[in-house]
């Protein structure tokens, strides 16, 4: 309700201009304590007597808190100077209703302007003479005068840094009671400025914002900041503002913004002790959490997280944190499973859409064929073409970065060991072979589109990253076994990949040798697998997995249905579905128990079969 409504009643609420003027005045009133957050008492928020309903926790005007709305604080509100917290929190609310809302409005106008310009050009018309376009462009330019005023941006950024310092120092109990929009607005505004007026970030101290982002992203505060969209925004702030510009092709944000002046100008991501300790595991956790933000939104978030993880991986300061990640097996397995699900989905989307894009490009390039279509047909085709282009442009950056992330993670022997777990290795192999089939299969490398770089489509680079991952696992027997068992694998496919890689010189020396040895290694192990399958041909039904109909190696008991199943099968299932596959009751991995008696009989039966085979061979 009120000014925060999607469509506020202008007869009952102040205009955007009035709200912005109030915010400007309050920013000036906060100037005397802009560098000293210790003078701000958090109790103003939980004292209705003093805030007068501005931060209500119930009713139509309720303001969401970071933590549970039912939480309370026993700390009395007794500040030394009541005017300071009053100015501070009124400014927090005023910025939310004015400057942050105006930034969102401006972003929407720019999006409309760009879309309208594209639509006009698609009709072969001139944007300069289109009255509707000129009207909305005038609206954008007029709005920029106020929303991008340099002095106001500077004051607002300094205030948000003050807010961040305040959130870092207060108790966890008080933190949970702070307005959620306090963090949300900080994220939205600094990202907005980095996009539309990055030069204004030069020389502004944003160190506290970095500290609070790292703090709130940590697993310790995942139950305090429970809003997945807000947690995703925290990751975006790290990427858009604090990732050194030369690391992700972003040149608009001044280099000084990501550097800590108190640490000799070293990047915050490398110099901050808290970041060194917790940021890598925090980002792995966030990678899974953004699944809940929406299908298209999660792609952008995960692409940002992948870039951050690669930057941290390349620094010695974070290596110990990555080593600790391998100690939390369950957490890493969930993260790795998410990567593989994502990659499969992305490659299907990209390889379906690119041929459609190519077909329309050829159609549009033929003036006679295009002119023969009705205007309605052209608009329909153009609209669908734009949707396909946008989807590919969203999917390919994440696709590329996910492959690179798998590549650098696989260079670590401990992490490779986790990927070779029974519950992950079959999925890893199938995912890699699925992508390889799309790239070097019948229509893979020949797939072309006009201006492929605009879509981030780099098939050679993708193949190089993929082949490097294969080379990292080429000498692992379990990896070779699962390649041989995979329905995606053929010797022709892998041999063609090796030849293509060698021809294009995608790998160097040792890595190329390792990759080149893979087809022969897989063929050799295929014979062993065939021998084992022949051995298990007449296995009793009780030795077979009830879902996969494969011979069980490690049978386990499901208490929810009384079923016995192979551990690798149920572990893979539970990664994506926390229910018993036989009766849909809730089930977790810690509930299953080993079927010891059955396993002993399986081992004895295998030994008997091998003894019989050896005896037959001797005869």
Structural class: mainly alpha
Quote the distance from N terminus to C terminus.
89 Å
- Overall morphology: globular
Strand order of the largest sheet: 4-3-5
Radius of gyration: 29 Å
Q: What is the percentage of strand-forming residues?
A: under 5%
Assembly state of the chains shown: single chain
The largest sheet, given as strand count, sense and whether it forms a barrel, is: 3 strands, antiparallel
The low-confidence runs, each spanning 5 or more residues with pLDDT under 50, are: none
Number of strands: 5
List SSEs in N-to-C order.
HHHHHHHHHHEEHHHHHHHHHHHHHEEHEH
| Number of DSSP helical runs | 25
Note down, in words, how this protein is organized.
- With 619 residues, this protein is mostly helical.
- The protein has 25 helices and 5 strands.
- The strands form 2 sheets. It has a 3-stranded antiparallel β-sheet with strand order 4-3-5. Strands 1-2 form a two-stranded antiparallel sheet.
- A hairpin with a 5-residue loop joins β1 (259-260) and β2.
- α1 runs antiparallel to α3 (83-97).
- The longest helix has 37 residues, at 329-365.
